Every structure is written in C-alpha cells, then in structure tokens.
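Quick start: what a row looks like.
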Amino acid sequence: MPGPRPVFLSAEGIPPTVFASQVAGLLEVLARELGLRFDFVGLDPLYPWSRLSTEGRRRRGELAASLPGALHHLPLLPYEDRAGLPFARRLLRRALGPEPLAVHARGLWAADLAARLGLPFVYDVRGDALAERALHLRGRGDAGGLRVRLGARRLLAAERRAVRHAAAVLCVSDALRRTLAARHGARAGEAFVVPCCHDPARFRPDPALRASWRRRLGLEDAFVLAYAGGLGGYHEPEAVARAAFVARRLRPDAHLLWVCPDPARARALAHRAGLRAGEVTCLRLPHADVPGALNAADLALLLRRRDPVHAAASPTKAAEALACG
C-alpha cells in the first residue's frame, strides 16, 4: 500500500532567486537520489500580481520548469479564524485530492497552517522570525519598539504551535536551534540542524566551464569578484559595490561580476560607488547558469553585518560559491 503523498508547502509567494536555489534544487536532489517526488504547494500573498504581471508569470514559469513534481500555486488568504481555516482546507484538498499527505512545511506560516489543519508535517525553520520582523520594521534584528512588539505575541504563538505539533523540527544553524530552545523548551532543543546546501552535480569546480564563461564575458585577464544573490537590504548591496571599488584601488584588474534579479539597479549602485561601466558586469541569470558565473570568479563576496538575523542564518550562496572553488 503506498504511503502518504509528499508535499512541500510554502507560504512565501514566489520570491526571486530564493526558490531556485533553496527549494527547486533540494527537491531535484531528493527526486534524483532518493526517488522522493514532492508536489510543491506555494501559497502566495501576492497571488493576483503573480498571475497577472509579466514578472510574476516569469517567476511562476521558471519555478514550474525547475520542479520535479507538480506546482500548485494558490492564494494565501487569512486562515486563523473559523471561516478561513475550512476554506484553506478545501483549497488544498481541491488541489491535491483526498489522499493522506506528508508535509514539508517551509517557514513559520506554512508550518502554522499545517498544524491548524492537523496535517503530519516537518517544520523547516529558515530563520529567527522575531528578529526578521524587527529587521523589516526597524532595520535591525535586535530593535525594539511598539511596532515590533505589537505582532510579536501572534508570531510567538504560531511558532510555539508549529514546534509542538511538528513530527520533527529542522533548523538551518545551531544558533537558530538554541534560539528556539530558549523560547520553546526541550522540544525545540531536539531539532535537527540541516544547513543550506548545494547540488554537487551542478556546483563543483569545472576548469572548462570557468574558461568558457570568462571568455564569454570578456574577462579572461581580470581578477573577478562575484556576487550572486538578491538586492534586499540585508544582502548589503551597497557594501558589495563599495567592496568592489576598494578592490579596484588595490588591484586595477579587479572586475565585479554581479548576478542578481535587477541588473539595472545593480549597475546604478555600482556607479554610485564609483565603478565605471567597464569595471562591473551585471547579469540576470537562470539558476542553472549560476555555476558558470561562480566558476568564472576568483573571489566570491558574501557581506553581512552583525545582526541576530544573520547569526541564525545559513546562506545557500555561501555553499554554492565554496563548492565552485
């Protein structure tokens, strides 16, 4: 008799860069190495935008093409009351059918929904939710203030419920596990630490790939600094540009290769930092091409300031860059 149907549940919408590396790559490896084929259920708070805008449709198409299983893209609607929860249950059952499910819940709100619906699930904790809230509202993960405190009780209640009802808890770092244990006791302290990883079939040193990408970019003789990732504030994009400017003063052959979702904005940041057009290359690439860009580099950049959000994190881009040598 077949077991429960494996489902990967997220409530983050379809953010740029993140799912291609952290989700699609993981599910592809699980399908290839273990024969586990997950359906992906993406609950999206920006559902109309993702369906109607050109950028939203592009993200949906790229994600669907990279997944080994089916993509179920659904609206994220309020589910914390008596009317919303039955609607969420009907929405999922309409998409997935009546068979038993085994859920990998990525992040707090996916896990909270799985707990409220009584589904068997693993809680995949991606970061310190309280610190992330403070960072988004006040610019630092350790910031206080009324706005930060107002939503903290709801968030902590959801986190406690997810930890209590999960069949297992996964944390991306030991620091994150200690933070959860301090809040929620021994159950959280038993969490498994599974840092963000890379696909070794794709991310590995490849001299031929390095040579072809450096030739393609016209950087055969350059000392290439690479940054591949988002442009959100916590990624410190201004610091990336300034670091490349300093590198140019130390090594006149230094060149910044910037792979990101918005090359025009990256070019503007580079120009503001003092880099000229011939000193930086800004590209938007599908995740399948990122190993080539990283192999082309001599040095990869990953800049973070001291903050509780970053202390708990495990950036996938670090694993991917190191794997490429």
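That is the whole record. DSSP finds 16 helices and eleven strands in the chain. The chain has two domains: 5-193, 207-323.
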